[in-house]
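REQUEST ID: PR-0412
SUBMITTED BY: lab tech R.K.
PRIORITY: routine
TASK: structure prediction, single protein chain
INPUT:
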Amino acid sequence: MPNALTRWFMALLGKSWAYESVDQVREAIAKNSFDSLPERAQAHAKGAAGLTDSYALQPGLIDLHDELVDVWHYLSALGSRADQLGNATLTDHLSDAANSVRDVLVHVADAAEATVPAPEVPLTR
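STATUS: complete
OUTPUT:
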């Protein structure tokens, strides 16, 4: 697995690192996911702890939605390219991932809308 300097240098040359085995891919994903897990969890918990009301959650949810839209477009573009390259299995996985992100988009949008309290309805007799 290349170090950060090697990846940076390769990026300057317009190249990227590709792993040649499923085990290497799994190791890279695990390293990226789990090596910083405690720090990420702590940072997000600390940030959320400072929010004082539902309105305070709104900007983060709107930003998250925007980031997820970008992820959806990226997955869709990768899926289209995988299809053009004739890799049906990869195309299916990328399509499933894009569909999952689309579902998450709906839930994040619903959560953002739920940050606005429902108007109080006056009691009538």
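NOTES: The longest helix spans residues 54-84.
REVIEWED BY: pending
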